[in-house]
Design goal:
Radius of gyration: 17 Å
Strand order of the largest sheet: 3-2-1-4-5-6-7
Largest sheet: 7 strands, parallel
Helix content: 40-55%
Shape: globular
Strand content: 5-15%
Low-confidence stretches: 252-260
CATH class: Alpha Beta
Number of domains: 1
Order of helices and strands: EHEHEHEHEHEHHHE
CATH superfamily: NAD(P)-binding Rossmann-like Domain
CATH architecture: 3-Layer(aba) Sandwich
Amino acid sequence: MERMKGKVALVTGGAGGIGSGISRRMAAEGAIVLVADILLDEAQKIAADIGNGASAIRFDAYDERSITAMVATVLERHGQLHVLVNNVADTSLTTFDGNVLETDLATFDKSVASNLRSIFIATKAALPHLIESKGAIVNIASGSAIGGDTWLTAYSAAKAGLLSLTRNTAVQFGKLGVRCNSICPGFIAHGKAKEMMPDTLRSVLDVSFVTRNGEPEDIAALATFLASDEAAFINGENVVCDGGHSVGTTPWRTGAVNAA
């Protein structure tokens, strides 16, 4: 299929596991992909690997000017933008992200800055161009956004805010031709993480209702569909992709099981 043929797609956090999966899938379906990440070398490797005119952009999710410059770079290179995938997230903060009493304000503020504020800035910068192209936004949230947990207070709150931003963007700009949807992934292991956490993977599978663990390709397939014209009548929705974990009656387990 070439559902993305002729479309220019910007994928933030594009050098990560889910982000690189989305970049690869969209390129495979015909999109010209801009892989945006703070790790420029990694983004360049992915862009070179996927081909089809893909290129890399370095940006810092904590820097407003860097974010707006990222969007400007897309327009400089291609003159248009059809798809924005807001996938960026600073998962390094989870080490310090406990319950409400344990989580300090600096960690909370930084989590909101990376997981919500940066996406607001990117969306605001991209919207005029997406209105022009009648484009689509796909926000990558987290299963942590839809349930309480014993830790990840800041991360969960920021990702829950992203679901609200998704709905507001859809309502405010749907009549102008821009669709905005979100995805809540469950636990997605990739690369060396699979080898490093076999016990976690087994625990996740125990509380899911499928026969395998989630892969970046699962999120990539869904994101590509939501960004494509096949999803033209889907707007303002959040799609949970977690192997049925969140719909079962099995209690949530703690730790990495709940983190996307």
